[in-house]
Amino acid sequence: MSASSSTHSEVREIPVSERGPAPRNVVVSFGFWLFLLSDIVIFAALFAAFAVLSHETAGGPSGNDLFDRNRVLLETAILLASSFTCGLMSLAVEQRKLIPAAAWGAVTFLLGATFVGMELFEFHGMIESGARPDRSAFLSAFFTLVGTHGLHVSAGLFWLLVMFAQIATLGFRPMVLRRLRCFSLFWHALDIVWIGVFTIVYLGAH
Amino acid sequence: MAEPIETTEDQEAGAPRVAGGSWQGYLTGMVFAIILTLASFWVAGTDLVWGPGVPILLAVLAIAQMGVHLVFFLHISSAPDSLNNILALAFGVFVVALVVFGSMIIMANLNANMMSMPELMNMQR
């Protein structure tokens, strides 16, 4: 153990109680991770509501009538690609490369915005055809769950814009780097929630 | 005192990197995620899989993809720095399972024990 990692060997031998506070990086990531988990608990409640209400269509349209799997696959691909470019952005940020970071960030933003646009288009089409949130319990649960995810993605887009402004004005100072790290955690976590959404809501439609 | 106080300040140079990653790592995660996503959509649309088995297969594929995202994108690992994150994750999974499955079981139970609507109407008269 100590032979394999020479840089950490002296740290390892100090008892935990004497190591002092963890590096700020670690603490910030942990705190934000706790926030993400509590956010996921919110989604869990919405998923539970959807699972309970998904059969209660009150004579209205069911999921099978409304959902287009090809569009969902495209949405999934777009969000997954944005997750990937977000990862490439955080790699560029770690190496303090401004141009690649800005470029990957811009791609991430465009993909995220496309995703939100497609979702709004879908909602608009559903509401036009009479499948409004007040039509049935199933549709209420659907709009709440998918809409909450869409709101999160929109908030992430706004956050990304703010980070662009902060990189432009403040540069890669540690504070900005931590915020960028939290942003990428947030963005990847939203992709994880979307896995649940497309599996339960769209592929599990009946 | 082996560790100077500087680690609590805004100093990145001496502090160990938290969320290390490489583009190979992201690419690997991306490839796994694409395969699992396509598999999910294929399973949902095919007749090759026995019908009642489809939801279970979908659940397995979704959980596998969440694992891929956690490891390759969120960099959850077994490193010492990540231990607290894993404990929090375990608690989060526990709460999520309680909320989702608890609600489903309770509501299914209530549904099964509920009087049908016409009978209820008759009683109110």
Keyword list:
heterodimer, A: 206 residues, mainly alpha, Four Helix Bundle (Hemerythrin (Met), subunit A), 7 helices, globular, disordered N terminus, B: 125 residues, 4 helices, flat
Straight-line distance between termini of chain B: 81 Å
Head-to-tail CA distance between termini of chain A: 53 Å
Q: Describe the sheet with the most strands of chain B.
A: none
Q: What percentage of the residues of chain A does DSSP assign to strands (E)? A: under 5%
Could you list the spans of chain A in which at least 5 consecutive residues all have pLDDT below 50?
1-6
Annotated CATH topology of chain A: Four Helix Bundle (Hemerythrin (Met), subunit A)
Overall pLDDT score of chain A: 90
What does this structure look like?
The complex is a heterodimer of chains A (206) and B (125). Chain A contains 7 helices and no strands. With 206 residues, chain A is mainly alpha-helical. Chain A has one domain (24-203): Cytochrome c oxidase, subunit III, four-helix bundle (Four Helix Bundle (Hemerythrin (Met), subunit A)), CATH 1.20.120. Chain A is globular, with a radius of gyration of 21 Å. Chain B has 2 domains: 21-75; 80-125. Helices cover 66% and strands 0% of the residues of chain B. Chain B is flat. Residues 1-19 of chain B have low confidence and may be disordered. The chains are: A mainly alpha (206), B mainly alpha (125). The interface between A and B is large, with 56 and 55 residues.
Topology:
The complex is a heterodimer of chains A (206) and B (125).
Chain A: H1 6-13, H2 24-53, H3 63-66, H4 69-94, H5 98-128, H6 137-170, H7 174-203
Chain B: H1 23-45, H2 54-73, H3 83-113, H4 117-124
Helix pairs in contact in B: 1-2
